[in-house]
Amino acid sequence: MHFSHIFKSKKIAQSTAFALFLAFFSLNVSAHPASEAPVSTENHATAAADGAKEEKFDITGFILHHIADAHSFHVLGEGEGSISIPLPVILWTDNGLVTFMSSEFHHDDQGKHIVERNGQRFVNYHEKIYVASATPNAHGEYVDVDAKHKVANVMPLDFSITKNVFTLIFSAVVLIIVFVRVANAYAKRKGKSPKGFQSLIEPVILFIRDDIAIPNLGAKYEGYMPYLLTIFFFIWFNNILGMVPIFPGGANLTGNINLTLVLSVITFLITNVKANGHYWKHIFWMPGVPVPMKIFLAPLELMGIFTKPIALMIRLFANITAGHILVLALLCLIFVFKSAFIAPVSVVFVVFISMIELLVGFIQAFIFTVLTALFIGLAVQEHGEH
Amino acid sequence: MDLFSPSIGLIVWSGVVFLTLLFILAKFAWKPVMAAIKEREQFIDDALNKAELAKQEMARLTAQNEDLMKQARSERDEILKEAKTLKDNIVNEAKTQAQTEGAKLIEKARIEIENQKKAALAELKGQVSTLSLDIAERVLRSQLDDKAKQQDLVNNLLKDVELN
């Protein structure tokens, strides 16, 4: 277990996540003063936002827009004339399933363009699909927005192939093609040394097996290898794909909390379904400590069952999102200073940060995999080392 | 906050897609890949073990050869040594034999010479006595008329005899 001692302490893992979280927020906060808050969220709804103040660049809105999910895959340009790849919108409404292409919104995400299907009217407001109001509000938006910027309209269940879902499926297809081909290469060159792409992948597979699975899971490692390998390559590939600025990259998939939630829930389920009596005994009736301590520790340990996957979820989300925000914020400097001379500085920094992000992309995939292996290992090991 | 807003669509899709990915990769990629890697590692381990065994066998054979060589060498040395002592013995023997033989011959020759000398002396003595008798006879014949002369003659003869 030569990695596990680093991550063994939940405290370290959680404090790391917390520190990254803080870093992420502080970054977000520091982005606010730069925008001078004229077009920040509050003012956005007011009529005065238009006109002279629109000259100011809304850095927060810009960044959040870019790291958020979207119903179309934006490629180039702004507004009506922009080029974007339409994606299917799939809605589950009270009247059944409704599907149409996102191009029917005509690049509108301000709730101004209504799409009618099955006698229902839908609008895209900040990349969320709402049932349109009967009449537009003061800004021509067919939504009811209250003072706290909360939308009152009904939201149908949205199962659209959004930018993130598209990337999800795309990456899955790419991974399947790549690894099935690698598997075929193994079948074709049976017992021989790896060649080509196979030899690129094999060290990584061996790394996961020898440095992640075996130290944490011991003899039982083989059953968990498919999950560890899949999760590692899936996260790694998507982290890197997210760094590619043009289609089909650029979606902030692994920096989306919904995806990291799903991944950590799967780890949580595997951990707790596979857990043996030894593990549960350590949670509810810690051996080797006095009875009052046992009673005191039980709720803490029970909480630990949930904090472990939550830390997993937030760590990946925060790291990848922070990377995207950093890159976008640096690029925004050009627009904040309204000077082309700042561009070289921005670009140098963005390239530098992108290099780091490539490293972070690997490290986060690695950490997620190591922690998954560690959690499963703790749950299935026969004899505790306490 | 927008970043944390749950999206049921993405949750469902990512669950479905990820589990499908996991299933497909596990069945069609990881299983054959891991099996192939394991098989190859087994093969490499076996090959290494075999190589190690072969190496040990080789070392054993080399050691054996070395032993044989050593043995052969020592045997050869022994044979050579034996041959040498044998030769020395023969030479020494021959030498002593030759010496004794020579000594014997010399002795024989010496005895022969002695004998010859004795014989010659005896003969000489005989001849001398005969000669002296002859001389005496002749002297006696020629000088018997003169007494003094006879006496002188006898004296001279005796003197000569003594000289001999």
TrEMBL record, chain A:
Taxonomic source organism: Pedobacter insulae
Taxonomy, superkingdom: Bacteria
Record's bilayer topology term: Multi-pass membrane protein
Entries under PANTHER family matching the protein: ATP SYNTHASE SUBUNIT A
Gene that this sequence comes from: atpB
Cellular localisation: Cell membrane; Membrane
Protein name per its UniProtKB record: ATP synthase subunit a
Any one annotated GO CC term: proton-transporting ATP synthase complex
Keywords, comma-separated and alphabetical: ATP synthesis, Cell membrane, CF(0), Hydrogen ion transport, Ion transport, Membrane, Signal, Transmembrane, Transmembrane helix, Transport
Role noted for this protein: Key component of the proton channel; it plays a direct role in the translocation of protons across the membrane.
Signal peptide range: 1-31
Annotated TM spans: 165-187, 227-247, 253-271, 283-306, 312-337, 349-380
Gene Ontology MF term list: proton-transporting ATP synthase activity, rotational mechanism
Recorded family membership: Belongs to the ATPase A chain family.
Entry keyword Phosphoprotein: no
TrEMBL record, chain B:
UniProt-listed InterPro entries: ATP_synth_B-like_membr_sf, ATP_synth_b/b'su_bac/chlpt, ATP_synth_F0_bsu_bac, ATP_synthase_B_chain
SUPFAM superfamilies per UniProt: F1F0 ATP synthase subunit B, membrane domain
Domain of life: Bacteria
Chief localisation class: membrane
Record key words, sorted: ATP synthesis, Cell membrane, CF(0), Coiled coil, Hydrogen ion transport, Ion transport, Membrane, Transmembrane, Transmembrane helix, Transport
Membrane topology listed for this record: Single-pass membrane protein
Molecular function terms, GO-annotated: proton-transporting ATP synthase activity, rotational mechanism; proton-transporting ATPase activity, rotational mechanism
Pfam families: ATP-synt_B
Location of the protein in the cell: Cell membrane; Endomembrane system
Record-level GO cellular component terms: endomembrane system; plasma membrane; proton-transporting ATP synthase complex
Coiled-coil residues: 44-89
TM region positions: 6-30
Subunit structure: F-type ATPases have 2 components, F(1) - the catalytic core - and F(0) - the membrane proton channel. F(1) has five subunits: alpha(3), beta(3), gamma(1), delta(1), epsilon(1). F(0) has three main subunits: a(1), b(2) and c(10-14). The alpha and beta chains form an alternating ring which encloses part of the gamma chain. F(1) is attached to F(0) by a central stalk formed by the gamma and epsilon chains, while a peripheral stalk is formed by the delta and b chains.
Protein family membership: Belongs to the ATPase B chain family.
Functional summary from the UniProt entry: Component of the F(0) channel, it forms part of the peripheral stalk, linking F(1) to F(0). The b'-subunit is a diverged and duplicated form of b found in plants and photosynthetic bacteria. F(1)F(0) ATP synthase produces ATP from ADP in the presence of a proton or sodium gradient. F-type ATPases consist of two structural domains, F(1) containing the extramembraneous catalytic core and F(0) containing the membrane proton channel, linked together by a central stalk and a peripheral stalk. During catalysis, ATP synthesis in the catalytic domain of F(1) is coupled via a rotary mechanism of the central stalk subunits to proton translocation.
Entry protein name: ATP synthase subunit b
The organism of origin for this protein: Pedobacter insulae
Lineage: Bacteria, Pseudomonadati, Bacteroidota, Sphingobacteriia, Sphingobacteriales
